[in-house]
Amino acid sequence: MKRARRLRKGVEFDTAYQKGTVERGPLLVVRVVPNGLGRDRWGFAVGKRLVKLAHDRNRARRRLREAALRVQPGGTGRDIVVVAREAALTASIEELAAELRRLLVRASRRSGGAG
């Protein structure tokens, strides 16, 4: 995923956590907030409580990133933070992509935006 399409700073994540629309599913939690840039930016989080070893957390984030690449709707100008739940660690990438797609549609309905 290109650098311009990623959330990289803590402040960007904080904004999504504080102001974003939250949708929860069995595999993922998604937070969505408009960013005014005309393109979606993605951030991925896997907690230390969930996965102890850094290389396992990185692997989980890579799998989430791959699922997001399969979903990628058009550039609607949102910041999207995807947080893994325990069940996401054993789910296939196709299952993650389907869950992500479903949660993004629900989030866009709640916030009144296109998705």
Number of helices: 3
Number of beta-strand segments: 4
Tell me about the largest β-sheet. 4 strands, mixed
Structural class: alpha+beta
Number of domains: 1
Cα shape? globular
Q: What are the segments in which pLDDT stays under 50 over at least 5 consecutive residues? A: none
Please state the CA-atom Rg, rounded to the nearest Å: 13 Å
Give the overall pLDDT as a whole number: 89
Cα separation of the termini = 19 Å
Helix and strand element order: HEEEHEH
Beta-strand percentage? 15-25%
Lateral strand order in the biggest sheet: 1-2-4-3
CATH third-level topology:
Ribosomal Protein S5, domain 2
- CATH architecture verdict: 2-Layer Sandwich
User: What is the CATH class designation?
Assistant: Alpha Beta
Share of helix, binned: 40-55%
Description:
The chain is an alpha+beta fold. It has a single domain (3-110), classed as Ribosomal Protein S5, domain 2. It contains 3 helices and 4 strands, in the order H-E-E-E-H-E-H. A 4-stranded mixed β-sheet has the order 1-2-4-3, with helices on both faces. Strand 3, helix 2 (54-71) and strand 4 form a beta-alpha-beta unit. Helix 2 crosses helix 3 (93-111). The protein is globular, with a radius of gyration of 13 Å. The model has no long low-confidence stretch (mean pLDDT 89).
